[in-house]
Design a protein that fits this description.
Number of helices: 12
CATH class of the largest domain: Alpha Beta
Shape: elongated
Radius of gyration: 23 Å
Strand order of the largest sheet: 8-7-6-5-4-3-10-9
Structural class: alpha/beta
Number of domains: 2
Largest sheet: 8 strands, parallel
Amino acid sequence: MKRRAIKVGHTIIGGGMPVSIQSMCDTNPHDATETLAQMRKLHAVGCEIVRVAVPDTGAIKPLAEVMKAAPMPVVADIHFDYKLAIEAVAAGVNAVRINPGNISEPERVRAVAFACQTKGVPIRIGVNGGSLDKSILAKHGAVTAQALVDSAHAQMEMLRRYDFEDICVSLKCSSVPTTIEAYRLMYAQSDVPLHVGVTEAGTLYHGLVKSSAALGALLVDGIGDTIRVSLCEDVVEEIKAAKAILQAMGLREGVEVIACPTCGRTKIDLKPLVREVERRLEACQTAVKIAVMGCVVNGPGEARDADYGIAGGIDEGLLFRKGEVVAKMPQRELVDGLMALIAGDEANKK
């Protein structure tokens, strides 16, 4: 089922457009300077939509300041007080996220819908397993996939009652199987664009594992129009992770660094080499595949399809291009040699 599209600032979500990457500022919402600085940092590494918390009326004036210079579309995250959503729209935000578990009264939803409709601002219905409406939770007895979907449908029906259709939906909980099932149900039942992610996923390691498992299972079936990898970590890591997941799923192009896990044949200190190659290519926007392999068995043999690569020896290594060896040098010179090889080829293309 083709997704309908919504427009968040200059970014289109759904409608067959590429999957966009989101994050959320963790700065003091009363400090516009701090928040803008983090937004710029996120934008520089590839964030395309950013969410900000609006916890009280004191956050509205700084939000208006942020909107004058925001480097990407901004979504206001609203809980409990529907008036804050209305004020955030007046401050110039590009979208509003409301949780049906804590803003569900018809008149309040109607007021938010009217404010958004007047300004052409879409609403993300952000269903969260930790804050389901009490009646839905009582009906299902627990946080289930169907409970999450029922909550989203109830809020969508309410918004549509007020002729509001500019909707995006997320169905998040900390359980990977429940999250996957909920999105699959929603995808089959509605054509609204879907914001996909696992909430409260955890620290960098466990959060990335959980997010990769859920997002991979959904994206491979075409489910997901915009994503966030939620991590209890520097928010920049969320963008790096999201880009890597989309690239692994064939939905983004960029630098792909592959490396063998090493074994008893490895005679070179490979792991620092891989980390340094990744670091040096972090800002590269070219679609290129780099192989860093521990021996000649894995590279350039098994890594022949890589654009460039390193194959380790005893404290030295080979540089290769498309499976063909181009140089042999000491380990300490390998990364510089690889970068020079790539840069030279890029310069020759111009």
